[in-house]
Design goal:
Layout lengths: L3 E4 L1 H14 L4 H16 L10 H10 L9 E6 L2 E5 L5 H19 L1 E9 L6 H8 L3 E9 L3 E2 L6 E3 L3 E7 L5 E7 L5 H10 L8 E2 L5 E2 L7 E2 L5 H16 L6 H5 L9 E9 L6 H16 L15 H13 L1 E4 H13 L6 H4 L3
Parallel strand pairs: 3-4
Antiparallel strand pairs: 1-14, 2-3, 4-13, 5-8, 5-13, 6-7, 8-9, 10-11, 10-12
Helix pairs in contact: 1-2, 2-4
Length: 352
C-alpha cells in the first residue's frame, strides 16, 4: 500500500461536507466547515485540516458541538456586537461574526465582534483572509482551554491562543500573518502522536513537567518566546473570553472546575477605504514587501518570503497535484465514509 493518498481538493471538500451532513449539519454549514479544513490542508497546515474530521464528528456525537445551532447576534453598540455561537461547530460561529463585522464596518469604518460559547475555530488565518479579500484589515483571535504552561510552571494554565492579521496587498494580493502563541500548537502535537513521530525538545512538557520528545507523553505546550507568547495568550483570553462574559481558563482551573471543550473568538475589521483609497493602500503594502525582499541577504539564506507566501505556493501546488493524506488518515476517512454510506473518493478507496 502507498504511504499516502493524493486527493483532489474539490472531491475531498465534497466528501468531508457529506460526512458532516451525515452527522446532522445543514448543507451550508457543513460546506463552511469542510472549506476551512481543506483550506488548511491545501496550505500545508495539516494539523488544522481534515485531520480534525474524526474529532469534530466525535464532539458532535457527544453533544459538545451542536450540529444545528444557529449563532445569535447580540447588540452592544453600532460598531460592536456579541455572537453567542450556541456551541455551533467553530467555523459556523466565526464566519457569522466575520460577515456581521463586514456589514457593520462598511457603515462605521470599523467593527468589533466577540464570539462566545464557540468550539474549535480551525485555522484562524482563514477568517482574516476572507475579510482581507473584501478590502478590510482584519485582526482575528481565538481563546480556548488551558493547554500551555506559563513560563516557570509545570502545568497548563493558559491556552495556545492563535492570532491572525490580514490585509490587502503583498505578493499574492492578500497577506495574512497567522501564529499560535505556542511553539507548536496542540494540533501539531496530536498529529505527531497519531503519526508516531518524535517532537523536538522545547515544544512540550510531560505530566511531571519534564521536557517531552515523545508526543504520546506531551501533555503541556510551551509558549513561543517565553513570556512574550504567554503574555499574548493571557491577553487573548481576556479580550476574547472575559470581555464576552464566557471566560474559559480560570473556571476550569478552579477547584471542582469542569474540563470540557470550549472556545471563544474576537474579530476586528477595519474598512481601509474609509482611510484612503484601497488601491493606494495595497500599493504601499506591495512597496513595503518589495523593499524588504530587496535587502542584502546572507549567501546561504533562503529566499525572503512575506507572511502567507509559503502557504500560498503550497496551495497552488496542491490544487494542481492533489492534497497528500497519510495512509493512516486516508484509511480513517475512508472508514468513516463507508460506515455512513457516503461515496468515498477514488484516491481513498485503496486505504479503506
Amino acid at each position: 500500500m502507498a504511504e499516502e493518498a493524493l486527493v483532489n481538493h474539490a472531491q475531498l471538500q465534497d466528501f468531508v461536507a457529506a460526512l458532516f451532513e451525515s452527522a446532522g449539519m445543514g448543507k451550508t454549514d457543513a460546506g463552511t466547515v469542510a472549506d476551512i479544513l481543506v483550506w488548511a490542508d491545501l496550505r500545508g497546515v495539516e494539523s488544522h485540516g481534515v485531520e480534525r474530521v474524526p474529532r469534530y464528528l466525535a464532539l458532535l456525537k457527544g453533544g459538545q458541538m451542536q450540529a444545528t445551532a444557529v449563532p445569535e447576534i447580540q447588540e452592544v453598540a453600532g460598531a460592536a456586537f456579541r455572537v453567542d455561537a450556541m456551541k455551533a461547530v467553530g467555523p459556523v460561529g466565526m464566519m457569522r461574526a466575520v460577515d456581521e463585522a463586514a456589514a457593520r464596518a462598511r457603515n462605521s469604518g470599523v467593527a468589533l465582534g466577540v464570539v462566545a460559547n464557540a468550539t474549535h475555530t480551525g485555522a484562524i488565518g482563514y477568517y482574516a483572509e476572507k475579510a482581507a479579500q473584501q478590502g478590510f484589515a482584519a485582526i482575528v483571535m481565538a481563546a480556548g482551554m488551558p493547554l500551555m504552561a506559563w513560563p516557570g510552571t509545570k502545568a497548563p494554565s493558559i491556552s495556545t491562543s492563535p492570532v491572525a492579521i490580514g490585509v490587502p496587498g503583498g505578493p499574492d494580493g492578500v497577506m495574512v500573518f497567522d501564529m499560535s502563541t505556542a511553539i507548536a500548537a496542540s494540533g501539531r502535537l496530536r498529529k505527531a502522536t497519531l503519526d508516531k513521530k518524535p517532537i523536538p525538545e522545547g515544544w512540550a512538557l510531560d505530566a511531571d513537567g519534564n521536557p517531552a520528545t515523545d508526543p504520546g507523553k506531551a501533555v503541556t505546550s510551551l509558549p513561543v518566546g517565553g513570556a512574550k507568547g504567554a503574555g499574548l495568550s493571557l491577553m487573548i483570553e481576556i479580550l476574547a473570553g472575559v470581555l464576552g462574559g464566557t471566560p474559559i481558563v480560570a473556571p476550569m482551573l478552579q477547584p471542582g472546575g469542569e474540563k470540557r471543550h470550549a472556545a471563544n473568538g474576537l474579530v476586528i475589521l477595519i474598512d481601509i477605504a474609509r482611510f484612503r483609497p484601497l488601491a493606494d493602500f495595497a500599493g504601499d503594502v506591495d512597496l513595503l514587501c518589495s523593499v524588504i525582499k530587496g535587502m542584502p541577504r546572507f549567501e546561504d539564506a533562503e529566499a525572503v518570503r512575506m507572511p502567507g507566501e509559503r502557504g500560498n505556493a503550497e496551495l497552488r501546488a496542491r490544487q494542481a497535484h492533489g492534497v497528500p493524506l497519510s495512509a493512516r488518515l486516508a484509511g480513517t476517512l475512508a472508514g468513516l465514509g463507508t460506515e455512513r454510506g457516503i461515496a468515498v473518493p477514488q484516491a481513498l478507496e485503496a486505504f479503506a
